[in-house]
Structure formats: structure tokens, C-alpha cells
Amino acid sequence: MLYLKYIQKSIIEKLSSVNFNWHNELINYEIYSKNIIFNFMHNENIILKNFANLNHKEKEKIRLYRNRPEVKKYLYQKHYIAKYEHKNFIKKLKKNTAKSYYCVIYNKHILGSINFEIISDDTIEFGFYANPFSKISGLGRILEHISIYYAFKIKNYSFLQLQVFDNNIFVTNLHKIFNFNIIKQFEFQNETILKMQLKKSDCKTIF
């Protein structure tokens, strides 16, 4: 009966668990025009839609989420992002081979944004923010699972890093649950930033 209840859960409900197992749920993934489509069991899919491919409505939603006080207070740039600035940012991304930004979509519902930056031949850095209006629980864990799979399985990097404000206790603890360790800390505008890292060999969520 417990197994049946698990099977009946949506992929989003399963991904919100720290113990999610990709091997049991993912059929395959496709990369098409810079978008990544994860095809799961029971005809479910999650799309990582590259910012370069977003339509006007999607761009505006992402900009709206980015400007929310509860989101931008934990980002380096805390000013209001105007339409022209957002448009120019996406335009520059098209020419930047080191950075990739994705809008994460499930059933036409935006879960949040994930971004990656190549640091070296074996290291990639990521960041994300969840849709502040979403009623889906466990969005942080969902975005974390996807980011880890992208870094280690799709891109095959050895190290995944991130930066987080030390007063963002909830997110710091989230990363620790996924076996990220603090490797460095530094000051930025009188605030302390933690640099955290996950080794591919220490990852427990996809192997």
C-alpha cells in the first residue's frame, strides 16, 4: 500500500523529497534548442527553458519574481530590475558561453529560475530562486535536485559550487542536507558570504 501511494505521487511531490532517486523515475532527457526536457515515468516532464527562448509573458514573470523583496534580499543585486535592464541582460546571455539561465517549468507552471556559471574545467557554480507565488511545497529541494543532476550527469563536472549569504539559514541548511560543505567565506558590502561545494563523489542523490 505504501509503495502504491508513492507511485501515485506526482513527480514534483517525489522531487521535493531529499531521498528522491533519479534512477527510478527518469526515463531520459532531451536537449533541444538550448532547452532541456526531463521525461519522467507516467508521462510527466519538467522543462528547463533557456532564458533566450522565453516568450514575453515568461520573461515578465521571471522579472516579477526576481523583483520580489523576499527573493532579492538574498541576491547581490538588490535594486529593482526594469524591463529594459532585464531585456538587455537576456540579450547579453545569448553571447555568453560561460553562463546559462533556465526557467524551470512543470505543467505550464513556473517553479523558479536556475542559473549556472562555468568556473573551471572541472567546476561549475549555480544559483536559484523559487517562484514566490507558488503553492508547491519543497521548491528549494526540487530546484536543488535538478541543479545537481544538471551539473553532474548532463554536464559531467566534478565539483558544484554556490554562494549564499550566511544569514540565509534556511537555504544554507538546505545545501548542507545535500552534502554541500562550506569551503570559504568572505565579506561583501558588510555582509558575510559563504562559498559551499559538493563533490560529485560525495553526491548521494543521483548515484
Characteristics:
nine-stranded mixed beta sheet; 207 residues; globular; Aminopeptidase; alpha+beta
Please, could you describe this protein's structure?
- Helices cover 33% and strands 34% of the residues.
- With 207 residues, the chain is an alpha+beta fold.
- Strands 1-2-3-4-5-6-7-9-8 form a nine-stranded mixed β-sheet, sandwiched between helices.
- The two termini are 27 Å apart.
Quick synopsis:
The protein has eight helices and nine strands.
User: Would you identify the regions where 5 or more consecutive residues have pLDDT less than 50?
Assistant: none
Q: What is the rounded distance between the termini?
A: 27 Å
Strand order, main sheet: write it out: 1-2-3-4-5-6-7-9-8
CATH superfamily: Gcn5-related N-acetyltransferase (GNAT)
Give helix % range: 25-40%
Sheet with the most strands, sense and barrel status:
9 strands, mixed
Q: Give the CA-based shape.
A: globular
**Could you state the order of secondary-structure elements as H and E?**
HHHEEEHHHEEEHEHEE
Oligomer: single chain
- Strand % is 25-35%
CATH architecture: 3-Layer(aba) Sandwich
The number of distinct helices, counting runs of at least 4 residues, comes to 8
State mean pLDDT (0 to 100 scale).
Answer: 93
What's the CATH first level?
Alpha Beta
The value of Rg in angstroms is 17 Å
Q: Structural class given helices, strands, pairing?
A: alpha+beta
SSE order and pairing:
Layout: H1 2-8, H2 11-15, H3 22-25, E1 26-32, E2 35-40, E3 44-50, H4 56-67, H5 69-72, H6 83-93, E4 99-106, E5 109-118, E6 123-130, H7 139-154, E7 159-165, H8 169-177, E8 181-188, E9 191-199
Parallel strand pairs: 6-7
Antiparallel strand pairs: 1-2, 2-3, 3-4, 4-5, 5-6, 7-9, 8-9
